[in-house]
Task: inverse folding
């Protein structure tokens, strides 16, 4: 009888262990039960992504989805196709569904006051990913947004300026070198107007380039962070009477630079030597262009934010203390290190 009891107890213990293991396995299986890593229940995150405008965005989306699986967080994912009103609709539906936490990347910085108040009134914590918001005067985003995860856009653009000025002083393009006495003419392809990335990168670039008065901006237009629009805008510039004056192209993301490279080639000029090109993101496509010697440099902007988003979500829901913004650490790449770095790149 005693022996039977022991056998029974062992069996029961084993079945508990199995169930626990089963829970952990489900962690890789999305919404199929189990508990969220680090929690005693499964949590639900509503996530509003901007769209799929660039290689960077795709990498970011993949990272968020993979991390949700890994943490066993049920992710209600919504793609806004670049429209703020779609994001608002998605967020309102997250509130109605009473999700545990909301993650979102605001397509533009402004216009979020009302909806952030609704989220706050519903008592739902919200993590802003990649892009920040600007609220009405007197309001601080820290009072409405529980945490921000993303890059320092100003700092990235400042690095781009430093890279370009150094290159023009030491190497130059096929037309000139910067000896301090000649004008260096810049064309700038900006990202989506009013987005945190465009606003921050424009501010950072303007502030830093102002230290070098012989650097003059002769063209500046949005290419909406897409390859197609980057190409179109560059095409028009290459047809203008000032086309030959362009010494430098600064594209606020790699995709626009890649589109512009096609336009420069089509116009019979050599991207990377007639026009020096620097962009931001450091996606695979940029490495390919650097290895072809058509893009000169790219400043890294890390899109692999998923793990940090999920980790922060769990901490918030467990009421643990968090840092409002931990800036991503990022490098920069050009012809001197692109080839060595290429095999280790994850996006
Ligand atoms: O640089 C660009 C994307 O907001 C940092 O958005 C992000 C930017 C990124 O479309 O490629």
Result:
């Amino acid at each position: 009888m005693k022996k039977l009891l022991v056998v029974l107890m062992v069996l029961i213990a084993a079945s508990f262990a199995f169930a626990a293991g089963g829970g952990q396995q489900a962690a890789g299986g999305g919404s199929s039960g189990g508990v969220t890593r680090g929690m005693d229940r499964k949590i639900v995150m509503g996530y509003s992504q901007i769209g799929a405008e660039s290689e960077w965005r795709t990498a970011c989306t993949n990272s968020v989805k993979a991390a949700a699986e890994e943490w066993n967080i049920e992710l209600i994912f919504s793609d806004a196709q670049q429209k703020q009103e779609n994001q608002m609709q998605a967020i309102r539906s997250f509130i109605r569904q009473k999700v545990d936490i909301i993650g979102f990347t605001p397509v533009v910085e402004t216009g979020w006051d009302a909806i952030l108040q609704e989220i706050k009134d519903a008592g739902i914590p919200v993590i802003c990913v990649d892009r920040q918001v600007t609220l009405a005067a007197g309001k601080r985003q820290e009072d409405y947004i529980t945490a921000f995860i993303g890059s320092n856009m100003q700092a990235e653009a400042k690095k781009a300026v430093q890279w370009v000025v150094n290159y023009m002083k030491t190497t130059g393009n096929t037309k000139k070198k910067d000896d301090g006495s000649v004008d260096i003419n810049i064309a700038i392809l900006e990202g989506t107007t009013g987005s945190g990335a465009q606003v921050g990168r424009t501010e950072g670039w303007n502030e830093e380039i102002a230290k070098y008065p012989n650097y003059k901006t002769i063209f500046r237009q949005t290419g909406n962070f897409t390859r197609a629009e980057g190409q179109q805008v560059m095409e028009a510039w290459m047809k203008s009477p000032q086309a030959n004056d362009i010494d430098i192209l600064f594209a606020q993301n790699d995709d626009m630079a890649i589109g512009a490279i096609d336009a420069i080639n089509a116009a019979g000029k050599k991207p990377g030597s007639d026009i020096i090109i620097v962009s931001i993101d450091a996606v695979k496509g940029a490495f390919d262009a650097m290895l072809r010697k058509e893009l000169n440099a790219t400043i890294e902007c890390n899109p692999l934010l998923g793990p940090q988003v999920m980790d922060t979500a769990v901490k918030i829901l467990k009421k643990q203390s968090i840092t409002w913004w931990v800036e991503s650490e990022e490098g920069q790449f050009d012809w001197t290190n692109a080839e060595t770095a290429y095999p280790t790149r994850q996006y």
Notes: The first strand starts at residue 44 and ends at 49. The CA atoms of residues 80 and 86 lie 5 Å apart.
